[in-house]
Amino acid sequence: MTTALVTGASAGLGAEFARQLAATGHDLVLVARTEARLRELATALEAAHGIRTEVLPADLADRDDVERVARRVAGDGPTGPVDLLVNNAGFGLRTGFLDSDVAEEERMLDVMCRATLVLSHAAGRAMAARGHGGILTVSSVASFVAMGTYSAAKAWETVFSEGLAQELAPRGVAVTAVCPGFTRTEFHDRADMTMSHLPNSMWLDAEKVVADALADLRRRRAISVPGRPYRALVGVLGATPRPVVARVSSALARRRRPARAAGKADR
Fold first, then answer.
1. For a Cys-Cys bond, which of 56, 147, 209, 262 suits 253, CB 3.0-4.6 Å?
2. Contact by Cβ (8 Å): 38, 30
3. What confidence tens digit (pLDDT) does each residue in 100-117 have?
């Protein structure tokens, strides 16, 4: 059996990746800050699918924790070498850049950019040496717009994955950035973001997002955009002048942003 390491595995898309990978026979290394939730998930998946799991509590904003996870990605363990890395951990802030605590802004970049870079470097080297493997990073359709530092971090993840896909393809390693739109998970509720104005047609199901992402990784597509409405939106954005994209993005961001202080939500 192969082994997948999933960050942000305790909830949302991360937990769904774990469930779908377990259902197809992958052993799992589950990474998140909340050990109790990871162990509960691990126990359920072992019972349901007969797989092996490792629980690796870590805060990916902490450099020592990132290095510890990177060593597991690059090395071996009870479930064997990591064949698939899923960079899923992340969170969003509820306030505009100048209203946010800069420490929280730095934390967001550490989790979504620095940790993704470090873990992908470890995985890419180990997988290239073996001649096979996959790296899947959960980015966002926000990477194609201009909604502050969250969009900027997601844009980094998307472009980073595109470049890494080209570098690793000749060495047998597939790389994909999945860029979902609004998805029914705990993400927005835990960030205390008001989303009641969004029509049902714009919501994606977590199960379908994960299934599409894994399918596109198998197809070696560098960019995966789940959902026909969002694929159409990305096409329109690509043909729209960037100043227009920036103005519309800013207006939409203000509608979503509550007046009170910042919050966060780990995926």
1. 147
2. yes
3. 999 999 999 999 999 999
Q: State the DSSP H helix or E strand holding residue 54, giving kind and residue range, or none if neither.
A: strand 53-57
Catalytic residue among 150, 208, 230, 264: 150
Whether the CB-CB separation of 226 and 204 falls below 8 Å is answered with yes
Contacts of 195 (CB under 8 A, 6+ apart): 182, 188, 256
Q: What is the pLDDT of residue 253?
A: 64
Q: pLDDT tens-digit profile of 143-191? A: 999 888 999 999 999 999 999 999 999 999 999 999 999 987 655 445 4
Catalytic residue among 154, 208, 230, 264: 154
Q: Hey, how many other C-beta atoms are within 10 angstroms of the C-beta on 259?
A: 7
For the question of residue 264 being annotated catalytic, the response is: no
Cα(first)–Cα(last) distance of the chain, in Å? 26
For residue 206, give the DSSP letter: H
Distance CA 122, CA 264 (A): 27
Contact at 8 Å (CB) between 195 and 215? no
What does the alpha-carbon distance between residue 67 and residue 115 come to, in Å, rounded to a whole number? 9
CA atoms of 231 and 144, how far apart (whole Å)? 11
Is 150 known to be catalytic? Answer: yes
Class of domain 3-256: alpha beta
Please state the domain extents for the chain.
3-256
Its pTM stands at 0.88
User: CA angle, corner 43, sides to 89 and 207, nearest 5?
Assistant: 50
